[in-house]
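FAQ: What does the model actually see?

It sees only this:
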Amino acid sequence: MKISRRKFMVFSGLSLLPDRGLSKPGRLRSPRLRPQATSESHESWIELNMDHLNWNLERIKSRVKVPIMAVIKANAYGHGLLEVGRYLDRANIDALMVCKIQEALDLKKSGVACPVYNFGPLHPRACAELVHYDIGQFLSSYGYEHLVAAARKQNKRARVHIHIDTGMNRMGVPYLEAPAYLQKLQAYQELQIQGISTTLTEDEVFDREQLKRLLDVCTHLNNTSSSTLYIHAASSAGIFSSNEFYLNMIRPGIALYGYYPNRQSAQENSLKLKPVLQFKTRIAEVRSLKPGDSVSYHRAYKAQNRENIAVLPVGYSDGIPPAAVDKGTVLVRGKKCPIIASVTANHLIVRLPSDLAVSPGEETILIGSQGGQTITADDFAVWADTSNYKILIGLSSQIPRRILSA
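And it is asked to produce this:
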């Protein structure tokens, strides 16, 4: 028996499927854009105190007294690339540095006007966009020919800083090869050489040898160039090491966000830095346990007594380190509550004090302050045996950022 296409669709139930946007074969219907939810509608969010960012910036300026290329790579160390980049642009920062071309493009396309530099590798196919958006590029040991060609085609000059490998053995032109390399680059009118830099190993003795190697290269360049160059080597660690590393530009990263690069500088707290970020969530569930009740996969935790727990809707996919279990705490109504069981992709379990009655929806502090108590990225770093860099950078970009003040 023959059956029509329409009847087949009805009998098979296919006619009940929702329209997927295909009104005609080969033609897609334009998708409907949903209004973007505000951070208040999310169960977890990150708050950025821009007054603290400005405080840290001014404290750094007061010490170094040289131009600043602010490092906002890796989503501004977990704080939010565009949020931080736009603020620093309005604060008249001298330059911004990222480590991926896409980060640089995002900044420029969002309206950031100050100089933006890509420290990451130079990809031949990206050169046209770099030139078009006037994004500066750190040059290593290859790829400049593509940048020259793109600049020539657009009748522009490409801004570059030359990065010298003085002993890090990671990125950059080997310092013994640098004089010949620089001479080669100076022959191209399409390149505007604005600076020369290196990365210090943060070894107290070897850093000085690296500085000597960099200055030797700079001497050669200045002998053949009348342009004024930015010479820079110091990251945040260099700020707290010696002013001989300041040269005429610095590249602070972690210090901008209110954290020190190592234990010694943190103990000294010479700049009185203020953390910019607070990480908050809301309690999803509250449970009462009897002795012997277990929690999470593989019965990771077993109650010894009657106790209450709170389930928080954050996990390692949001940047909470699994190693914080049995060591770390969160703040609930200003009280430190221990992290128990296991950190899963989307959930964190904390034990509540017996005298604390809480309800789902209540605000909880993962990083930040509440009721006179504070938990920092440094604390999580200790609990997880890692660094504050990794804690902050590990915070998911999917968590909404909320600017408190600007």
